[in-house]
Write a structure and sequence with these properties.
It contains 2 helices and no strands. By secondary structure, it is an all-alpha fold. It has one domain.
Length: 72
């Protein structure tokens, strides 16, 4: 009985591997095809540097206000 169970498990894992390989898309853009971010462009500078800094700053301001409200 154990012998048949081992073959069933191996067959199942083999089938899962074959199905996973069949799901790889071919006409989708891949990360290695993208050019690096150009920081000389002002839009990229705003999007990747300034906006994250503003979000982090607003988070710390919000958190300090939350702490002040709990103390009062």
């Amino acid at each position: 009985m154990k012998f048949k169970y081992n073959y069933a498990v191996l067959f199942t894992f083999g089938l899962i591997g074959a199905l996973a390989h069949a799901q790889i898309p071919t006409e989708v853009p891949k990360p290695q095809d993208n050019p690096p971010v150009d920081f000389s462009d002002p839009a990229n500078m705003i999007l990747f540097i300034i906006l994250p800094l503003i979000v982090i700053l607003l988070f710390f301001i919000w958190r300090s206000k939350q702490r002040k409200d709990k103390v009062e």
